[in-house]
């Protein structure tokens, strides 16, 4: 089970994400603006950060920039959750420092699986740094 920081200013989206992730046993921490989200990430241990792009105070791109500049936080999976669906936005999101992208509207059937996919991708990266992985 993971500790998941959600930075999202839309109460309906926040409620849905919290509900779905809690239902699957994950712990959620919530922030409704970028500055608060960044402060939580710096002070509470989290396994993954889900971040809306259009949020007050610091937007998602600025949150990404600061997280990826922070040696303590840069290796956390940072996932944009956003309504932008136009071709090219995915590249913009990834080049801003996000490790992945989940599009809105949130699909309750697959949302938790998508989030867990980013968690396990990160864990297997860590596992691959152990020499035993290469022994056979
Ligand atoms: Mn928003």
Provide an overview of this structure.
Helix 2 (34-43) packs parallel to helix 3 (60-69). The protein has 136 residues and is an alpha/beta fold. The chain has one domain: 3-Layer(aba) Sandwich (Rossmann fold), CATH 3.40.50. Mean pLDDT is 88; it is low at 126-136. It is globular. The chain has helices at 11-23, 34-43, 60-69, 89-95, 111-127, and strands spanning 3-7, 27-31, 48-51, 78-82, 100-103. Helix 3 (60-69) links the parallel strand 3 (48-51) and strand 4. It binds manganese (II) ion. Manganese (II) ion binds at residues 9-10, 52, 54-55.
Approximately how much helix is present in the residues?
Answer: 40-55%
Structural class: alpha/beta
Report the mean per-residue pLDDT as an integer: 88
Q: What pattern of helices and strands is seen along the backbone?
A: EHEHEHEHEH
Q: Any key phrases for this structure?
A:
single chain; 136 residues; alpha/beta; Rossmann fold; five-stranded parallel beta sheet; 5 helices; 42% helix; globular; disordered C terminus; binds manganese (II) ion
């Amino acid at each position: 089970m993971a500790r998941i920081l959600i930075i999202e200013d839309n109460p309906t989206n926040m409620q849905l994400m919290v509900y779905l992730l809690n239902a699957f046993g994950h712990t959620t921490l919530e922030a409704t603006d970028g500055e608060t989200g960044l402060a939580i990430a710096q002070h509470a241990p989290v396994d993954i950060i889900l971040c809306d792009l259009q949020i007050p105070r610091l937007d998602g791109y600025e949150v990404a920039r600061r997280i990826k500049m922070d040696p303590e936080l840069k290796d956390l999976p940072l996932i944009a959750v956003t309504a932008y669906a136009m071709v090219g936005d995915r590249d913009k999101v990834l080049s801003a420092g996000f490790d992945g992208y989940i599009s809105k509207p949130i699909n309750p059937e697959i949302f938790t699986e998508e989030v867990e996919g980013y968690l396990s991708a990160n864990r297997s990266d860590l596992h691959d740094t152990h020499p035993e992985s290469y022994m056979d």
